[in-house]
Plasmid pRiA4b Orf3-like domain-containing protein (Polyporus arcularius HHB13444), 375 residues
Amino acid sequence: MQAAPSKRRIEDVDDSEEAARPTASKRSRADWDPYGFGFDVHPSPPEPADTPDPTSVLPPPSDKVIQLRFQLSRFKGVYRVVRLPLSFTFAHLYRFILLIFGWSGHHLHEAEVVTHVERYSPNGPRKGEVKKHRSFRVPEEPDRHEDIRAWQEWLFKYGKNDRDPAMLVKPKGARRQHHPPLDMNDPWDVLFAELEVPVKKDAEVTLGDIWAWKSRHNLSEGRCSNMEIAILFHYDLGASWDVHITVEPDKDGRFMWKVDPPRNAPVITVAKGGAPVEDAHSDYGETEPKKKKISDLLFAPDVFAKYLEGEIGSTARKTELAVYNVEEERARRQALAQERQRQRLAREQAGVMDEEEDEEDEDDEDDDEDDWGEE
């Protein structure tokens, strides 16, 4: 009987024999693609590690802060007044809106920056909302009664762009290109390029790019004042949850301050009412939005920093905007579930469990699921 080949240790392998083995750079296409599927000869390099999300931490400190009003459109009495650093990006702004209105962030969103804003009356039911706006890139509309030809020419060139936003901000920025490219020798292409709405990535645009200490340095380059610029934030694009963000002067008419030392955290000065429950099937049993209570934790100086770290959560409930410690809320829910299970077992042992009680327990669990919100 032929003896089985002996197992050699690593140190027994000859260097010349090891060198003869094909390495990754010396292997042929057949080694990598023995069946001829057309794979690349060299394997793809490993993908770089994911970079940390810049919105998971506060923005850099800024020596200027601006006071803004966050008005939930179509809901009278539901608003927030906040002082924000001008270093706040639109990505931070999105996360902050989720916190102050108790939304989950499970829906699409975008923001429009609009200029030459006209607001609704401060004494009316839509205080804080934008009534109308027009593009600062479009010349003012001529009076058709004074010069009908000038008005017709304006309407032909600019009529469709009169109400365009000054900027559109999305999570991923612009995704379209012109095919074929614009011809800058063509006057119509030049006009189109001048009127085209720029689309920016939310992490690359700050509040300081929109409002400035001096109006001539704001987004419109002085063609309208800071008070005439606003942000229309759209959340859940199919359901139109809109937040109108406008400048909110104090009683002395000031809305922007220089601060020392610089700040990077928002300061919530006023918060009234709460948003309706997100994705609810009906508003049965829900308190009127303007009468909803707000957790005191929302006014904590470090609430937004803890929210970004995942330590704090918020959710819109039927009677309040709840802001809570995530770990404590999880422990509370676990204890509540255990207590319900204990009571159910006790009723089963006593023989008093019936279908109606079982349905009531299920309804209570459903209510808790509606109340729970977590980032």
